[in-house]
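Project outcomes to date are best conveyed with an example. Our students and postdoctoral researchers have been running inverse folding experiments weekly, and each run begins with a structure described purely in tokens. The record below, which covers 115 residues, was selected by the lab manager from last quarter's runs and is presented without edits.
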């Protein structure tokens, strides 16, 4: 459990305030959000569904196309991290962790809505 908590702390503290985000920051966070959304479309969380309208907003906010975001190193890194965490801690724990970090109600790069 310690590894998951450490990773979560890094993700939370690494995000600059929305007003301070550069174009590169936006692309990074949007690509990470797309990896999360793609993963959880295939493996849905009952209490954190992907919000497709929010996904479209994040893509527009990023200034990149969806294809560009999916080809980025940030997307690949996030996808790999999700898979690793799911293997290590199980789907239930990753359903609680990942989507909460990409909450559309609180983050400009959010792609999930809590039920």
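After processing, the design step wrote out the following sequence:
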């Amino acid at each position: 459990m310690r590894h998951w908590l450490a990773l979560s702390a890094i993700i939370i503290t690494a995000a600059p305030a929305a007003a301070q985000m550069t174009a590169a920051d936006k692309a990074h966070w949007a690509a990470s959000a797309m990896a999360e959304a793609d993963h959880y479309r295939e493996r849905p969380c009952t209490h954190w569904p992907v919000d497709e309208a929010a996904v479209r907003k994040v893509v527009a906010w990023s200034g990149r196309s969806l294809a560009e975001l999916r080809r980025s190193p940030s997307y690949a890194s996030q996808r790999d991290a999700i898979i690793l965490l799911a293997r290590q801690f199980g789907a239930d724990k990753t359903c609680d962790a990942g989507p909460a970090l990409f909450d559309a109600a609180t983050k400009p790069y959010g792609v999930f809505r809590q039920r």
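The two ends are 25 Å apart (CA to CA). Residues 29 and 109 are 6 Å apart (CA to CA). The training component of this project remains on track.
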